Every structure is written in C-alpha cells, then in structure tokens.
Predict the 3D structure of the following.
Amino acid sequence: MHANQPPAVEINTPAKLNLFLELLDRRADGFHELETVMVAINRFDRIRVALSDTDDVRVECGWLPHQAAVVERYRGSQAVATLPRSQDNLVTRALEQFRQRFSIADGFRATIAKTIPAGAGMGGASSDAAGALRAAAQLCQIDQHDQRLLQLAGELGSDIPFFFGSPQGSMSAAIATGRGEQIDPVSIGGKLHFVVVHPPESVSTAEVYRRCQVPSRPSSAAAMLAALVGGRGTQIASQLLNRLSEPARATSEWIDRVLSAIARTPVLGYQVTGSGSACFGVCPNAAVASRIAHNLQAAGIGSAFAAHSVCIASPTRDLG
Ligand SMILES: C[C@](O)(CO)[C@H](O)COP(=O)(O)OP(=O)(O)OC[C@H]1O[C@@H](n2ccc(N)nc2=O)[C@H](O)[C@@H]1O
Ligand SMILES: Nc1ncnc2c1ncn2[C@@H]1O[C@H](COP(=O)(O)OP(=O)(O)OP(=O)(O)O)[C@@H](O)[C@H]1O
C-alpha cells in the first residue's frame, strides 16, 4: 500500500437476469413470496470502497462514458432513472448500516462507476450494495459469508444476497426463495449467451409488484433447473417464465416494443427480466448474440448488447 493512502478494495459488481420468476403468495407485510432463478451476467458496475478517518459515509456515483452517452441520448424522453445523490444511494444505506451493525468507528468513501442501466430489472443498485458490503467486510476483516452480513444484506433489499455468490466457491446462477433473499446456488452445464435490450424508460419495482397477481396454481422452477444442468439453450429457452411480465408491460409501453423487436430475431426464447424494463433473448452462442445485438441496436428501441453468464467474483484488495 502507498504511504498515506487509506486501505481500499475494488470489486466488479455484475448485473443479473431472471430466467424464471413465479409468485407464490402475497405476505401481510406487502412483499411477495417467490421462486426465481437468477444468473449473473458480464455487465458490471465498478465500486471502490476505502476506509476514512472521518465518522461518516460518502458515496460518489456516475455513469461510465459509454452508458453516459446512452443516458444523454434519451434525456428528456421518458424517465431514464437518474442516479441518486450520495444520501439516497443504496450503497450509502448499506455502508451506514454496516458500521452500526459491526460497531465500526471508521467511516467509508465509495466511488461507483456504473454501466448497469438503472430501473431495468437487472439488479444494479442491489449489486452495488452487495459489492459495498463485501468490500467493507474485507477492509474490516469480517468473513464475506458471515451470517450477520447476509442478514443485513437481505434486510436492505431482496435481490442483494444473490450478489454475494456462494461460500462454496464460484457461483453464476441461483434459485432465490422467500422474498428473494434466500439463495441456493444452481449448476449450469455451460456458459449461457444472451442479447439484452434496455428501452429508454425505467420501471419502478414497487409499482410493478403493486399491479401483479399471484396465480392460484403457481408453476415450479424444477424444469428450468433441469434445463440449466443440461446447459442447452433451446431447453432453457422453453422454460422461461416471468410472472411480473404482465404488470411490467402494463407499466411501460416500451416493453412490448422491445419484445416485438426481439421476437423478430433468431433468439431461442425471450422475456422481461425482473420487474423490467430490460428484456433479454437466449442465444445459441456468442456470435449469434452479438449479431442480434448489433441489429437490435439499429432498431431505435433502446440500448442492445450481447452478454453471457459469469461467476460472482471475490473482491480484490487495492494496493494504491
Ligand atoms: C423483481 C426482482 O428484481 C426479481 O429479482 C426482485 O424481486 C426485486 O428485488 P429488489 O429490487 O431488491 O426489491 P426490494 O428493494 O426488496 O423491494 C422493492 C419493492 O418491491 C416489492 N417487492 C419486492 C420483493 C418481493 N419479493 N416482493 C415485493 O412485493 C415491495 O413493494 C418493495 O417495496
Ligand atoms: N447504486 C445505485 N445504482 C442505481 N440506482 C440506485 C442506486 N442506489 C439507489 N438507486 C435507486 O434505485 C432505483 C432502482 O435501482 P436499480 O437500477 O437496481 O433497479 P432495478 O434494476 O429495477 O432493480 P431490481 O431488478 O433489483 O428491482 C433507481 O431508480 C435509483 O434511483
């Protein structure tokens, strides 16, 4: 470490796609019991967390140049979620709660360079918060998989525990139950390829859940889990399901435009991710994914990119 530089840790925080999402029940606290299969993909924010000798938390958050250009292009059209100021950032809340829960006297400074579209159903804020907690734990010599840390993560947001990965080693996909905070890693038979399209309108997760309906006979994720073990794109595509699709489509007209455009491409199957507004198609390989992304990008329905499944990696100690 350089002299006078406070210790710091950096981590690439991935986005997620929901391959399967079924609603099981509406709870008395307003949340929904669900069963969802999530996969981490190679679209990353980068977060750097440093200890500070002041007793507060400050977070800077900005788009990396490529995503800044996308946001700028659509500014003033519909609401593309603006990035929150320090005090409203989920990372600020996560680090403040971490200090309280673990009685940490030092403060934290965090910088987030974002590429994951906000309000897209890709878990950007959750992944940033998980990255912040994991980085803070490493800085304070607390085990990444300490139950108190995972408990805090689940309290802060339903999607956050997924982005901790597995204590048993590399994890790229998991089945999440409860309100999404109970995670069981699942095996996948090979790298999965996708095309992802994010329209120029963000969607509020709370609003989509307000409009959703719990089916009287929920579908099971078992067939999706079996398809993932097999690793064949066609089988995985045939098991896609998202019970939040309908309320998401009712919330943003852009979603139907995006789904229609993806339907005209040779994807194996497609759907909305999470509460939207981003949608994805399952592709047979990387070359097809990038050709379809190129064509969809030209269609004027938002930002399209190719992606593949990735393992959720450990934080790395920064030496400078
Ligand atoms: C749509 C998904 O992204 C799918 O992975 C998640 O279920 C949403 O997870 P999240 O963004 O971490 O959501 P939270 O921050 O916990 O909750 C946001 C809002 O979504 C609703 N919500 C969320 C999760 C859940 N199982 N049931 C709910 O009804 C609640 O109204 C809540 O106020
Ligand atoms: N670090 C952050 N990055 C992005 N958005 C943040 C962050 N912290 C708080 N927010 C707020 O959270 C809202 C939604 O964030 P996010 O991008 O995670 O949505 P999402 O992808 O729909 O999430 P999910 O799939 O978990 O429901 C945004 O409107 C934004 O104002």
Observations:
- The pocket of CDM (ligand 1) is lined by residues 18, 21, 30-32, 34, 36, 121, 123, 126, 157-159, 179-180, 205-206, 209, 274-275 (CB under 6 Å).
- Residues 124-139 form the longest helix (16 residues).
